[in-house]
Design goal:
The chain has 75 residues and is an all-alpha fold. It has 5 helices and no strands. Helix 2 (27-34) crosses helix 3. The model has no long low-confidence stretch (mean pLDDT 96).
């Protein structure tokens, strides 16, 4: 992960938090639906980990959103 993109990773993570909370899920519940570790969800939400396209698409399916919504970064 390049340092120059760290703000974008953080904003992406905040969007994951937003949609997780909209569904009233814990990190563990989301992790189980995505078939990943809870610690990975935590790292994504904090902007400390990148995600694959496969995981992005799976998140969108689980959240019932389009990929562009995960990348709609608000100030």
């Amino acid at each position: 992960m390049k340092a120059e993109y760290s703000e974008r990773y953080k904003k992406f993570g905040l969007n994951v938090v937003y949609y997780r909370k909209m569904n009233r899920w814990t990190q563990l519940q989301l992790a189980e639906q995505l078939d990943i570790q809870r610690s990975h969800i935590s790292a994504i939400e904090l902007g400390n980990a990148g995600v694959s396209f496969d995981l992005i698409f799976k998140m969108c399916d689980v959240f019932g959103i389009k990929p562009k919504e995960l990348f709609d970064f608000r100030d």
